[in-house]
């Protein structure tokens, strides 16, 4: 390959990396209403849910582009984030703007073709609004920053619910919010262990001691709330079984494994990386999905 071809390949790779495709795993929360409503046997519902997932992936990538642009100077001083396309200079402002516009246009086209309703677009608009606010100034406000991250996960669930026109239960909304707060604070816990932590404004209001207490509180809340869900009248009426409490064991071990990684090992990894690379965590996720589906839908 000649020098010009190698340069084009590097440029394409940088643009693809700008989209943060591995982070799309977070958008699987869009499919949660499809799973819990037992609608995954209806092709029309699956199609709308898949389209909603695709739209959210494109919109989330747009948010990452915006976030990387505003964080480019801080990222350039970070030991790992300095390799991001914008921070490293491989993607300039004009290229980032073009990519962002194409992502929004692609999301709109996909959603319109799939016939996603107005409620879905309201959720998308709310997601864009809070994340642009987060990227510009709210990311430096203590606790508000992690609450916005958690709200993003809740909005994913609401988007999936609107896409298939199935109301999201309070149980799934609260469970998602608590779990997302746990994940967000765990990420802050790992960030505090980095060498440049004292120079990052987004960490100024946090300490290891505070986050450890918060993580313990949220871990107990996630486990306790999920256990209550499995034993609730709502679950008994909807799924017709009182045996879903058995799936709680996978939730307990999964939460403990996450705490082990971020507190015990202090790995410099996001929740997405843990889900994609950590074998014990993957085993817990698969075990929970399989056991829940087996008990609830057979």
General description of the model:
With about 300 residues, the chain is mostly helical. The protein has 13 helices and no strands. The chain has helices spanning about 5-20, 30-35, 45-70, 70-75, 95-115, 120-135, 145-165, 170-190, 210-230, 235-240, 250-265, 270-275, 280-295. The protein is globular.
Distance between the termini: 55 Å
Shape assignment: globular
Quickly count the helices.
13
Structural class: mainly alpha
Sequence stretches where pLDDT stays below 50 over 5 or more residues: 1-7
The average pLDDT score comes to: 88
**Total E-strand runs:** 0
Cα-atom radius of gyration: 20 Å
Q: How can the largest sheet be summarized?
A: none
Strand percent estimate: under 5%
Helix content: over 70%
Task: Summarize this structure as a short list of keywords or feature phrases.
13 helices, 298 residues, disordered N terminus, mainly alpha, 71% helix
Task: Produce the secondary structure layout.
Blueprint: H1 3-18, H2 32-36, H3 43-70, H4 72-76, H5 93-114, H6 118-136, H7 144-164, H8 170-191, H9 208-231, H10 233-239, H11 248-265, H12 271-277, H13 279-297
Question: What's this entry about, in short?
Answer:
The chain has 298 residues and is an all-alpha fold. The chain has helices spanning 3-18, 32-36, 43-70, 72-76, 93-114, 118-136, 144-164, 170-191, 208-231, 233-239, 248-265, 271-277, 279-297.
């Amino acid at each position: 390959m000649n020098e010009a071809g190698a340069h084009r390949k590097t440029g394409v790779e940088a643009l693809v990396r700008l989209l943060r495709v591995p982070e799309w795993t977070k958008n699987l929360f869009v499919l949660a209403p499809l799973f819990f409503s037992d609608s995954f046997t209806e092709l029309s519902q699956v199609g709308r849910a898949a389209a909603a997932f695709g739209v959210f992936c494109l919109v989330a990538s747009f948010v990452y582009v915006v976030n990387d642009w505003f964080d480019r100077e801080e990222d350039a001083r970070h030991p790992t984030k300095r390799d991001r396309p914008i921070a490293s200079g491989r993607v300039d402002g004009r290229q980032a703007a073009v990519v962002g516009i194409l992502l929004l246009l692609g999301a709109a086209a996909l959603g319109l073709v799939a016939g996603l309703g107005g409620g879905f677009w309201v959720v998308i608009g709310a997601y864009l609004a809070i994340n642009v606010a987060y990227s510009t100034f709210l990311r430096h406000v203590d606790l508000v920053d992690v609450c916005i991250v958690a709200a993003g996960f809740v909005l994913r669930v609401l988007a999936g619910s609107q896409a298939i026109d199935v109301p999201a239960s309070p149980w799934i909304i609260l469970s998602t919010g608590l779990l997302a707060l746990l994940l967000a604070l765990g990420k802050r816990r790992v960030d505090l262990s980095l060498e440049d932590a004292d120079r990052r404004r987004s960490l100024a209001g946090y300490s290891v001691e505070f986050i450890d207490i918060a993580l313990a509180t949220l871990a107990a809340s996630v486990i306790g709330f999920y256990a209550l869900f499995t034993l609730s009248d709502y679950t008994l009426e909807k799924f017709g079984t009182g045996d879903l409490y058995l799936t709680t064991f996978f939730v307990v071990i999964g939460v403990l494994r996450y705490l082990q990684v971020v507190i015990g090992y202090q790995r410099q990894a996001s929740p997405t990386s843990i889900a994609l690379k950590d074998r014990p965590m993957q085993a817990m996720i698969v075990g929970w999905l399989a056991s829940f589906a087996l008990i609830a839908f057979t």
